Amino acid sequence: MILSADPFLLAPDAFPPLLGLSALLFSIGVAGVLVRRNPLVVFMSIELMLNAVNLAFISFGRFLNSEEGQIFAFMVIVVAAAEVVVGLALITQIFRIGRRLDVDDLNEMKL
User: Fold this and answer.
1) Can you tell me the distance from the alpha carbon of 106 to that of 42, in angstroms, rounded to the nearest whole number?
2) Are 47 and 30 in contact (CB under 8 A)?
3) pLDDT value for 64
4) Topology of 15-96 in CATH?
5) How far is the CA of 87 from the CAs of 3, 43, 47, 91, 92, in angstroms?
6) Is 67 exposed, middle or buried (0-12, 13-18, 19+ CB in 10 A)?
7) How far apart, in whole angstroms, are the C-alpha atoms of residue 69 and residue 83?
8) CB contact set of 7 (below 8 Å; sequence gap of 6+)
9) Model-level pTM?
10) How far apart, in Å, are the Cα atoms of 64 and each of 57, 58, 59, 71, 73?
11) Apex 69 CA angle, 67 and 74, nearest 5
């Protein structure tokens, strides 16, 4: 049974599947970063990895009846939002000048 008597405490049998789901999402994100060459897909894969880490943080926090998991997840969300803003600004500027969007070709910051 996944539900526990306390609504704020995660049942012990729900903890391993959530960590497994987190590991699966993180693995899919790593595969997306390693296989794909489009910067937008790479950014989406990085976001998937960060969300997998958030799921693990919140799962640990609920399992241990602690708020630290949610605090860490909030901090990861803040950093991810800043990363997306900077990354999308760089990608749109590169797209505007007409360069091909390929991660292998964009290894230097030269325009």
Assistant:
1) 13
2) no
3) 87
4) Helix Hairpins (1.10.287)
5) 40, 8, 12, 6, 9
6) exposed
7) 21
8) none
9) 0.80
10) 11, 10, 8, 14, 15
11) 100
Alpha carbon 98 to its chain centroid, in Å, reads 29
Render each residue's pLDDT in the chain as its tens digit; 111 residues.
Answer: 455 556 656 677 788 899 999 999 999 999 999 998 888 888 899 999 999 999 999 999 988 888 899 999 999 999 999 999 998 898 888 778 876 667 766 666 555
| C-alpha span between 69 and 89 (Å, rounded) | 30
Q: How many Cβ atoms sit within 10 Å of the Cβ of residue 55?
A: 19
SS (H, E, C) 59-107: HHHHHCCCCHHHHHHHHHHHHHHHHHHHHHHHHHHHHHCCCCCCCCCCC
